Amino acid sequence: MIDKHLIERKLRKIEDLLRELRVIKIESFDEFKENIVVKRFVERNIELAIEQMVDICKHFISGLDLKEPETYSECFDILGKGKIIPEEMVNTFKSMVRFRNILIHAYDGIDDSITYGVYSKHLQDFRTFINTIREYL
């Protein structure tokens, strides 16, 4: 069973994190990479927003008794196949999870240009996820 109130709280948390990111006004990549405090703030908010997405996916999978994923990325495959999220967005959401893994584990360091790219061009992907989940509910 899907706990709609829990899902909505998590969606609002993503919105809060995105609002916080909009407060930061970074005009260029150079400005971004030179300000370690801003850089870490952006990384952390993106990481937390992606974790909320994963939590929502896992809740849907559990609540709808879908196939158990082996990875966080696979959660989005399962929701795509279950028609909960659009198939055309699955790869985008999976890429977000891979980016989260890089942020958390800092495998070979974090490429600032990728983080800046997510911040400057892909925050709308979170809004797409939020709207998709709300439409489903």
Concise overview:
The protein has 137 residues and is mostly helical. It has helices at residues 4-23, 29-34, 36-63, 72-81, 87-105, 112-121, 124-136.
Question: What are the salient characteristics of this protein?
Answer:
137 residues, mainly alpha, Four Helix Bundle (Hemerythrin (Met), subunit A), 7 helices
Q: Work out the count of structural domains.
A: 1
Helicity level, as a percent range? over 70%
Topology order in helix (H) and strand (E) letters = HHHHHHH
* Strand-residue proportion: under 5%
Could you list the spans in which at least 5 consecutive residues all have pLDDT below 50? Answer: none
CATH class: Mainly Alpha
Number of strands: 0
Detailed description of the structure:
With 137 residues, the protein is mostly helical. Helix content is 77%, strand content 0%. It has one domain (4-136): bsu32300-like (Four Helix Bundle (Hemerythrin (Met), subunit A)), CATH 1.20.120. It contains seven helices and no strands. α1 runs antiparallel to α3, α3 crosses α5 (87-105) and α4 (72-81) runs antiparallel to α5. The longest helix has 28 residues, at 36-63. The termini are close together.
